[in-house]
Design goal:
Layout lengths: L1 E5 L16 H15 L3 E6 L34 E2 L3 E4 L2 E7 L12 H9 L2 H4 L3 E5 L1 H14 L4 E5 L4 H8 L6 H13 L2 E4 L2 H11 L6 E3 L14 H8 L6 E5 L8 H11 L7 E5 L7 H13 L3 E4 L4 H10 L2 E4 L8 H8 L4 E4 L4 H4 L5 E4 L4 H12 L4 H12 L4 H14 L5
Helix pairs in contact: 1-16, 2-4, 4-6, 6-7, 8-11, 9-14, 12-15
């Protein structure tokens, strides 16, 4: 079967933990690889404003052209056009769209042109399944289907839902375009794929999706990379000492609870002055001022060290080296950092929201029903002093073994096959 994965706003080969790259990137790359391993041909479509795939790409929107070839980026008024395709691996191709967009939100102004470009791509026309990731990708696919009558089965994974984020944060931060589009998408998609039973319930209750067309396919993690290991060896590899080591992984955003982790370390300073929190990630999000303030606060706290995101193999060493991983998200559809840490045998202290409740239990870590930094500081101190932490670590690794990409893809393909598409 020919399958298209649409991930417009972020490319699967971008480094998670910065910009708009995160768990969605991991998901798209992993499912593409798993589908290809089963003999399917996978076409990935992306229009990532920050990642063109060009050799001269620096991450700066002003310098994303191929200088060696004498080419320059399109000017702001330049039309949507295809850049060179590339292979992500056997059976997986990435097709990159150049657009005038400089941010994820800018893509909305170019959805008609993006839809027209996708309609003209023969590899996409040959697909029996089009699987969109995130609402912007889904909106573009629906415009393409409306204008060009594409016959492929249309599936969507939202990854996050605007109404859920507003509910979980008690705010109205999500744009009106998103809040209007997601119920429409959920209502017309042939298949909606949720990460957890909790997310499935939200998609049905908040977006009005027909229950018969919403399935749960729990994401996986790479168990060849994220495995238990020698904590002392990992610390030697990273140049760490014997002090209590805490870890936070991912983009620095309000939704990720970055401010909670920073404030908790400030309160922990008097009780455990030797404890250190390492934050692997970069400031991100539409509220650049708030993200920048968090980054400055983290850099100013003596107990916190901020480092760039790490590739998977190096990240696994960080998980193994840590005494605990902090995941204070205010909303989370799954929680890859929590699942990866658990697979490495490291207890997780997580907020009891969304998918984190599916990953962390009281036998494998700590779930907190509060974002009060004082409560987080107390929980950290208790866990670091808990003699049962080793048993908790072993239980976490055992429980994380159920998160596999094979199982995730099996679930999706079984549903697609049941809908009449040959898998």
């Amino acid at each position: 079967m020919n399958i298209a994965l649409i991930s417009l706003h972020t490319a699967p080969d971008a480094q998670p933990g910065q910009g708009d790259a995160g768990g969605l990137n991991v998901y798209v790359r992993a499912t593409a690889t798993e589908l290809a391993a089963r003999g399917h041909q996978v076409e990935i479509i992306t229009a990532d404003p920050a990642h063109t795939g060009d050799p001269a790409h620096t991450g700066d929107p002003a310098h994303t052209g191929d200088a060696a070839a004498g080419h320059r980026d399109p000017a702001p008024e330049a039309p949507v056009a295809w850049a060179a395709s590339s292979r992500l691996g056997p059976g997986v191709r990435i097709h990159r769209l150049r657009t005038p967009a400089r941010t994820k939100e800018d893509l909305l102004a170019h959805l008609d042109a993006i839809a027209a470009a996708m309609a003209g791509l023969q590899e996409l026309a040959d697909c029996q399944l089009i699987w969109a990731h995130y609402w912007i990708s889904a909106a573009a696919v629906l415009r393409m289907r409306s204008a060009h009558r594409a016959a492929a089965t249309f599936a969507v994974s939202f990854h996050t839902v605007g109404a859920v984020k507003d509910r979980d944060t008690g705010s109205q931060r999500e744009p009106a375009d998103r809040l209007a589009a997601e119920p429409w998408i959920a209502g017309v998609a042939d298949l909606v794929i949720a990460n957890t039973p909790a997310e499935r319930g939200d998609i049905i209750d908040l977006l009005g999706a027909p229950p018969a067309r919403v399935i749960t396919a729990v994401p996986g993690i790479d168990h060849t990379v994220y495995t238990p290991g020698d904590r002392h060896a990992a610390r030697r590899c990273l140049g760490l000492g014997a002090e209590p080591v805490l870890l936070a992984v991912g983009r620095m955003q309000h939704i990720k609870g970055t401010d909670v982790a920073i404030a908790a370390m400030q309160r922990l300073r008097t009780e455990l002055p030797e404890a250190r929190l390492y934050m692997l990630g970069a400031a991100s999000g539409t509220d650049a001022q708030a993200a920048g303030a968090m980054a400055e606060a983290a850099a100013a706290e003596p107990a916190i060290t901020v480092l760039p995101p790490e590739p998977a193999e190096r990240l696994a060493d960080w998980y193994r080296a840590a005494d605990a991983v902090l995941v204070p998200s205010r909303s989370e559809s799954f929680g890859f950092a929590a699942a990866e840490a658990a697979a490495c045998g490291t207890p997780v202290i997580a907020a009891a929201v969304g998918g984190l409740r599916h990953i962390v239990t009281h036998s494998t870590g700590v779930l907190l029903h509060s974002h009060d930094p004082q409560i987080w500081a107390q929980a950290i101190a208790r866990l670091l002093g808990d003699a049962a932490r080793q048993q908790m670590a072993a239980a976490a690794a055992g429980q994380a073994s159920r998160f596999t990409w094979e199982r995730c893809v099996d679930t999706v393909l079984a549903e697609v096959s049941g809908a009449g598409v040959t898998a």
